[in-house]
Amino acid sequence: MTATLEAPADAAPDDSPPDPPRHAHPVPASLQPWHDPHPRLGWLILAAITVLAALTRFWALGSPPGKNIVPKNGLNFDEAYYPVEAQELLRYGYEDNRGYMFIVHPPLGKWLIAMSEYLWDGNSNAYLTNSLGWRIAPALAGTLGVIMMTRIVRRMMRSNLFGGIAGLLMAMEGMSLVLARTAILDIFLQTFIIASFGALVIDRDKMRARLAGLLADGADLSSGVPSFGPRPWRLVAGVMMGAAGGVKWTALSFFILFWILSVVWDNGALKAAGVRHRTGGWLYRSVLPSLGSLIFVPLATYLLCWLGWFTGENSWNRHWADTNTSWGWIPGPLRSLINYHYNAYTFHEGLDSPHAYQSNPWSWLVLGRPVDFYYNGAEKTCGASSCSREILLIGTPLMWWAFVPMLLWLAWHWLTTHDWRAGAVWVAFIAGWLVWFQDLSRTAFLFYMAPLVPFLIIGLTLALGVMLGPSLHGVPAGERFWRADRRRAWGIAGISTYLGLVVADFVWMWPLFTGGLLTYSEWHAHMWLPSWV
């Protein structure tokens, strides 16, 4: 017997009306996913930017050579603290305060330095004698930051060209370069915040693509908010933000504002999809789940960073709760950690001791007071009677001095176009700069701008994109840059000129970024402002 799909002869006829056909709804441009027509070009650009970033960050990384860290000689600026504390993590599994009275920063950044120390020297029981070991992790983090910037901006601007420009600017940004070549914490903070933002951008695209798919399939979204489905990239963003907090508390303002930014993006997507009366559904489908991925997950990640402290019997303040019974319903180790955080917060709030290289946030955007990380004027091998070798923490000047006009333009651009990318840069600007004005008496330094710098570069790249002019869609590839109107030709010339100046400035400042040997006259010629000395 052969099986068939025919109904048996005695089957009752199906009189039910057929399902009405579903007609695809128009998909707004803001919801349509981007399909890169030249993905190989994107990867080739990324490869070139990666080589540049790695060469500049790893070249002569052990110079100036650090000596034995016990007497703390040959260390750049705050390398006097963090490689030492990383060594304690290697030796004891926790920071037991053998070197300092009080440890004020979370441990994750020091764990990363410790891992590179161990991988390079392979001995956790001896003090290190090689500065290269404790600088590998920062250099790797800085290189990863450049890689992520290239791909994030490519996605945001839907352009391989401008992804490459953003990566080039990031690779040549002086302050990030110096931090990536120094074993302090701020480059890890910057990298984790870039990663968190990048994950949120991917999540934004994925969620909008899902709404676009529903509209294309004929779904009527006007009557209610659909399920957004799994959102793994939001979870990744939460983990990265918790890791950023595990390096420095400076991540807190980004943590709060990025959470708000993500749920606002969701609301904008629902509006673009034509969802009416969306507030209740938005709260249920977006805001409520975000409490898990963008609030509780970062907090859990942050606490995991303290695992060594929890398990170490001699960790600083670990047994405070043994003799303090207040809030007894909270487990003792957690109460001890809360008290530790209170002490650290009090320390930071009261930090007003003067420092030769401190600066006010007002001066940061114009590089008013860079920080001398290393200086040696005793060498006599430069061919002159007086020599100078310095590592100066300073941004690439011609890049940084474009930030203020860019921000003013970006505010106007957002007001007139509501470009979500401009809004994101300004949110980061609030998180990374304006928050420092709450206490101007606090001792502060230029490198506190580190987590904000990538977003200023994003804003600068957006400005260059507008300078280039409208797309030449439909023009043959071989003629795309030459069959253009006068505005686009001027745009190409302007972008090329600006990038050329930034590259030349980066090359000029290279000896100060890396501790190159100069004659005193050459060194003095690099000091463009009196406050740089």
Could you explain how this protein is built, in words?
- The protein is mainly alpha-helical and 533 residues long.
- The chain has helices at 39-58, 82-92, 108-121, 131-157, 160-171, 174-180, 186-216, 232-245, 251-272, 279-304, 307-311, 332-349, 361-364, 397-400, 403-417, 420-432, 453-468, 486-514, 520-526, and strands spanning 371-376, 387-393, 517-519.
- It has a three-stranded antiparallel beta sheet with strand order 1-2-3.
- Helix 16 (420-432) packs antiparallel against helix 17.
- Mean pLDDT is 86; it is low at 1-12 and 66-73.
The ordered string of helix (H) and strand (E) elements is HHHHHHHHHHHHHEEHHHHHEH
* Biggest sheet architecture: 3 strands, antiparallel
Strand content: under 5%
The total of helices stands at 19
Helix/sheet category? mainly alpha
| Number of DSSP strand runs | 3
* First-to-last CA distance: 97 Å
- Main sheet: which strands, in order across? 1-2-3
Helix content: 55-70%
Average pLDDT score = 86
Radius of gyration: 27 Å
Shape: globular
Low-confidence stretches: 1-12, 66-73
Brief synopsis:
Helix content is 55%, strand content 3%. It is mostly helical and 533 residues long. It has a 3-stranded antiparallel β-sheet.
Question: Helices and strands in order, then pairings?
Answer:
Elements: H1 39-58, H2 82-92, H3 108-121, H4 131-157, H5 160-171, H6 174-180, H7 186-216, H8 232-245, H9 251-272, H10 279-304, H11 307-311, H12 332-349, H13 361-364, E1 371-376, E2 387-393, H14 397-400, H15 403-417, H16 420-432, H17 453-468, H18 486-514, E3 517-519, H19 520-526
Helix pairs in contact: 1-4, 1-5, 2-3, 3-4, 4-5, 4-6, 4-7, 5-17, 6-18, 7-8, 7-9, 8-9, 8-10, 9-10, 9-16, 15-16, 15-17, 16-17, 17-18
